[in-house]
Amino acid sequence: MAKKQIKKVVLAYSGGLDTSVIIPWLKENYDGCEVIAACADVGQGDELDVVHDKALKSGASKVYIADLKEEFLKEYVWPTLKAGAVYEDKYLLGTSFARPIIAKKLVEIAKQEGADAIAHGATGKGNDQVRFELTVKALAPNITLIAPWREWDLDSRSAEIEYAKKHGIPIATENKTYSMDRNIWHLSHEGSDLEDPANEPKNSMFLISKAPEDAPDKPEYVTIDFEKGEPVAVNGKKMGAVELLTELNEIGARNGVGIVDICENRLVGMKSRGVYENPGGSLLYYAHRELEYLCLDRATYHYKQTVGVRYAELVYDGMWFCQLREALDAFVNSTQQTVTGSVKLKLYKGNIISAGSTSPYSLYSQEFVTFEHDDVYNQADGTGFINLFGLPLKVRALMQEKTNK
Prior knowledge:
Layout: E1 8-12, H1 17-29, E2 34-41, H2 51-57, E3 62-67, H3 69-83, H4 98-113, E4 117-119, H5 128-139, E5 144-146, H6 157-166, E6 179-182, E7 187-190, E8 220-227, E9 230-234, E10 237-238, H7 241-254, E11 259-265, E12 271-277, H8 279-295, H9 298-316, H10 323-335, E13 341-348, E14 351-358, H11 366-369, H12 381-389, H13 391-403
Parallel strand pairs: 1-2, 1-4, 2-3, 4-5
Antiparallel strand pairs: 6-7, 7-12, 8-9, 8-13, 9-10, 11-12, 13-14
């Protein structure tokens, strides 16, 4: 679609420098098109306080601010948690699964407003451009996508600031050291001294969690209850999703839990170094895994570990709305029917330590496993089991003796 044919654009708006500059840039480069700013509240906190007025001052004709926190947790975070999906053994996918719900809302607004295009402020170097655009393609295949970072000649922050001043766009006076992304699940840090993997993260960087060495000298215990794999209570108190994660974030943060430092493989081909603060999420993943140890049989648990790796890759790669993820969800939900119970954790200076788990569906039987006398297990059965289980090894060894191979 030619630029002059774009009459109305819905922009994924955050209130930051990039997306504020994009508003007048779109109007200037797409024949005076109307720009509607759409902001998704996935738990950024006070970052959203200035969004509405700033978007209008930057040239937007209308501003949407959608509270998506509950939907974000129930429809995107909890399924990923139940899958046990962790990208490259460390990253709990905080930015990755926030993008599809944001893009889904953009599509809804675009359809409601009769917009011709959807625009975003993701750069051409990152993963987010893929996540935004694949979601739009899956939900609105005929709408035009505009990615200014892949078109314009504003190649630095100073160039953007100069453009903003020229067009009378209000900009923040503080200069943030790190590039950050925040939602109710996590806070990420990239850039500056972190671009050298040899540099240890500075404690002053942490905005949510205490550094482990600054956490209390006394351990704290927390109990998390699950029903069919989903968290429902903290310390015996039933809570909604937002309240529950908020409570766990506070508990984990004050104990220095959930700080992750990873040099990860981006989808676009380069490695990037990120430091994530994920206090509540780390507690949930740990507790959920503890409960699965009790409630899933060996074959199911081991296969589910494989599924978790693939699930994490799909989420990371922006393939939330693909058929494979939906199919994997069906498998995961089947495994979670008995993942119900309570997990107690001991937190101490950045460490999460198991402190006991219970479930009405526990497959652990003290009667069978005890070292004391029992009336349910015949140890002599082990002889036949080992003979049959080891038969392929024995046959191969006999062949090798016979053939010297």
